[in-house]
Automatic annotation (TrEMBL):
[4Fe-4S] cluster 2 binds at residues 72, 107, 110, 113. Belongs to the complex I 23 kDa subunit family. NDH-1 shuttles electrons from NADH, via FMN and iron-sulfur (Fe-S) centers, to quinones in the respiratory chain. The immediate electron acceptor for the enzyme in this species is believed to be ubiquinone. Couples the redox reaction to proton translocation (for every two electrons transferred, four hydrogen ions are translocated across the cytoplasmic membrane), and thus conserves the redox energy in a proton gradient. Its EC number is 7.1.1.-. It comes from Streptomyces triticiradicis. GO terms for molecular function: 4 iron, 4 sulfur cluster binding; iron ion binding; NADH dehydrogenase (quinone) (non-electrogenic) activity; quinone binding. It is a peripheral membrane protein. The gene is nuoI. NDH-1 is composed of 14 different subunits. Subunits NuoA, H, J, K, L, M, N constitute the membrane sector of the complex. It comes from the Bacteria. Keywords: 4Fe-4S, Cell membrane, Iron, Iron-sulfur, Membrane, Metal-binding, NAD, Oxidoreductase, Quinone, Repeat, Translocase, Ubiquinone. This is NADH-quinone oxidoreductase subunit I. Transmembrane segments: none annotated. The keyword Transmembrane does not apply. Its main location: membrane.
Length: 209
C-alpha cells in the first residue's frame, strides 16, 4: 500500500508559503535600469563600435591589408586597399584602406578583427547604441569609422612628415603634423584642383559624402 505524502506545513500556511519568493524579491535591491534616460558606464574594455585610428599627424593607420576581414567569423568587414601617391597620400606606407565597411547587422562584436590588425588601426570604442531599423544604416563606412582629428593633426590626404619613413611612424618618432602641412586634393574621390575648375570651385567641393 502506497504511503501517504507527508504534509510539511499546516494547511492554512500553504497559500502564504507560495508567496515566499515574491515577498523576498520585494525587499531585494532593484535591478531595473532607467535606460536610456540614465546610461550605465560600460567596463573600460567593453566591445563597442569600431574605430579606425590615425597617426599623430593625421595620416591613417589602416594599410588596407584585409586581415581584419579574413579574421571575421561573421563576414562583416569589407575592405578595398589602394596605392598611395605623393600627390594623394592617406597613410605613411605604400597602401591604404580606400574602402572600409563594417556591417553591424552581422557583427557580433567579438573583437577578433582588432586582434588580427597588424597596425592597431582598428580598435573598439565603448559605444553600444548601434540599433537601427534600416539595414543600410547598419553598414558603417570608412568616413563614419575614422577617428576624428585631434590637436596637431591634418586631415588626409597629406604628405608624410619630411625626412621620415613608415617605420618612423611606428617607432613613435612622428608626434604631430609637420609645420605647414596642408591637406592634398582627393582626386580619387572626385575632388578637383582649384586651377582645374572652370567656375573656380574650391578644392573641398565635390567630395564624396
Ligand atoms: S567584432 Fe567580430 S564579428 Fe564584428 S567585425 Fe570584428 S571580427 Fe567580425
Ligand atoms: S584595419 Fe588593420 S587589419 Fe584591417 S585592413 Fe586596415 S590595417 Fe589591415
Amino acid at each position: 500500500m502506497a504511503e501517504e505524502p507527508k504534509e510539511t506545513k499546516p494547511g492554512f500556511q500553504n497559500p502564504v508559503a507560495g508567496f515566499g519568493v515574491t515577498f523576498k524579491a520585494m525587499f531585494k535591491k532593484r535591478l531595473t535600469e532607467q535606460y536610456p534616460e540614465q546610461q550605465k558606464t560600460t567596463a573600460p574594455r567593453f566591445h563597442g563600435r569600431h574605430q579606425l585610428n590615425r597617426h599623430p599627424d593625421g595620416l591613417e593607420k589602416c594599410v588596407g591589408c584585409e586581415l581584419c576581414a579574413w579574421a571575421c567569423p561573421a563576414d562583416a568587414i569589407y575592405v578595398e586597399g589602394a596605392d598611395n601617391t605623393e600627390e594623394e597620400r592617406y597613410s605613411p606606407g605604400e597602401r591604404y584602406g580606400r574602402v572600409y565597411q563594417i556591417n553591424y547587422a552581422r557583427c557580433i562584436l567579438c573583437g577578433l578583427c582588432i586582434e588580427a590588425c597588424p597596425t592597431r588601426a582598428l580598435t573598439m570604442t565603448n559605444e553600444f547604441e548601434l540599433a537601427d531599423s534600416s539595414r543600410a544604416n547598419l553598414i558603417y563606412t570608412k568616413e563614419q569609422l575614422l577617428a576624428g582629428l585631434q590637436e596637431g593633426m591634418v586631415d588626409t590626404p597629406h604628405s608624410i612628415f619630411p625626412g621620415t619613413d613608415e617605420q618612423d611612424y611606428y617607432r613613435g618618432l612622428v608626434t604631430e603634423a609637420a609645420p605647414g602641412t596642408e591637406r592634398q586634393v582627393a582626386v580619387s574621390k572626385g575632388e578637383l584642383h582649384p586651377s582645374a575648375s572652370p567656375s573656380g570651385t574650391s578644392a573641398g567641393e565635390g567630395a564624396e559624402a
